[in-house]
Design brief:
By secondary structure, this protein is mainly alpha-helical. The chain has helices spanning 7-35, 44-76, 91-110, 114-144, 159-165, 208-217, 223-253, and strands spanning 4-5, 147-151, 170-171, 192-196, 202-203. It has a three-stranded antiparallel beta sheet with strand order 3-2-4.
Length: 257
Amino acid sequence: MARRVSKRAWEGYTRRLEAQRAAAYDDAYEWVVRNVPSRGRLDMKRLRLMMVEAANHHGKSTAALAATWFDQMARAEGADAMKAVPVNDTAKTRVKRMAICSNKALPKLEAGDVEGFARAIASAVAADVKRQATNTVMLNAQKNGAEYAWIPGGAETCAFCIALAANGWQPAAKATAMGEHADHIHDNCECEFAIRFNESTEYGAYDAQKYADIYGDADGRSSQDKINSIRRELYAENRDKINEQHRERYAAMNGGG
């Protein structure tokens, strides 16, 4: 029997994930702002400990939400699936990732750009929180023979996310680059992996053909050429909106109205 996951149900799930990601971003950002003294120096060991703790705290919540969603989908479709297990990287892996991210952001702090440094650190923590949810979905989907699709969401959908969405539904067993998507997530990404156990199941929030058409019509032969073409088109379409958002964020960061 065909089943349809309503747009309302999907967006309710993704909003809960986004709330945890946003909370992680805010926690990390505020910590940096509070702890960077006027001279711009910072105890990097304490910083990395904070990043790991924030990612662990909020990541456990997103992984648990993703596992619960997976189990609900399995029950609704009558799938013979194992209970989903939340996925979390080892402490060593997370410490290493946060060290790399903080080192990459450090030139901003050294140049006196505390604001930019705080945003870079917060974005790294938020991306790690998102990674835990997406990897929970994908690894459990692989174990249980489910299919997956990347569903765009939120106000900003980047070219890379459109390219992923254009792939449509795919067997999770064929996914080979776990975590790769997280390296391309922009700061406000609200896109997520959806899963299904029956090819007749559809999501009201996902029109695979629409994204396939966008990708197919983009200029270029290679995937990267097409992504760059889509990126240019998106910027041209949304230039005024993007610039206004940047102005609003700058004003908010500097106490303006």
